[in-house]
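Exercise: predict the fold of this chain.
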Amino acid sequence: DAAERILAEGKADLIAIGRALFADPELPNKIADNRLEDITPCIDCFGCRNDVFANVLGLSNILGIRCHVNAALGKEREDEIVSAKRPRKVLVVGGGPGGMEAARVAALRGHKVTLWEKEPRLGGQLIQAAIPPYKDRTRLLPEYLQIQLKKLNVAVELNKEATAAMIEELKPEVVILAVGVKPLIPEIPGLDKAHVVQAGDVLEEKVAVGNQVIIIGGELVGCETAEFLAEKGKKVTVMRRGPEIAAGVGPCLRPFFLDRLSEKSVTLLTEIRYNEVTPSGLVIMTKEGKKKTIEADTIVLAAGSIPDKKLYEDIRGKVPEVHCVGDCVAPRTIRDAIADGYHIGLQI
């Protein structure tokens, strides 16, 4: 709409589009055909630019650029979606990005797809990912995928937590598991007696959070949760055992991200050792070897996660074919989940 208005007002003769064409090279054609709901949205993650920066700085051996939402970028011929030789009965378990993308591609190829999601909504971790400051465009991805699943007649069943017995009863020819992760709970004496909450629950405001907050875990989730809480006036300390905060955030955005945390008075502690949790807070050993108590009334865990393999182990050998996609393979990124789902959808 903005581009159309600028052209109509004579303020420009040509509108150039950059990252949005990586996300969906067919964007102009879809606009011309009034198929706006079919445009794969750029979520402003800057993953493509991070690849450019990483290559220039020698931080990556990845050639070219990749897109979080378009797994076929640069490989459109090799990864073309073509009709399956024989349509099959496919069950996808899990409605996060990997599961929805697998269901979308499989349905496009002519398979009969059912998707089970244990929550009352689709989106998985994308819901939480869209909540922190400056992340609102992430919500466009689950909205787009839900529209596509509906148009492709994927049978979506919410509030349905899969078991091995339920899967055997359905008798699918292919099962795609996209069941995500389980949170990693660090072993710190006294942690079980403190007011401890998960970062995801904090972002969705499912839990109460005090005014003095410690966040254990200094990667993306922990730092985004810190910024979210700092904007609500909380006094936040982020700590981790490793030497750098937000080390996994791409080089394009990391400096600005750290600057925002500093501007919002978030305390960042690295290379610490956790001793114990007491009624006063968390006792740590600093990198200088000093024992210190960080006062807090709430401890937020963002210490990582582990793949949820239980359902895979339960059904392995009981169904003709089973695949895992997304974080239940290994905790990774939106880009990895989408790529897994896309390629398994092509493979089956």
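Check your answer against the key: The two ends are 39 Å apart (CA to CA).
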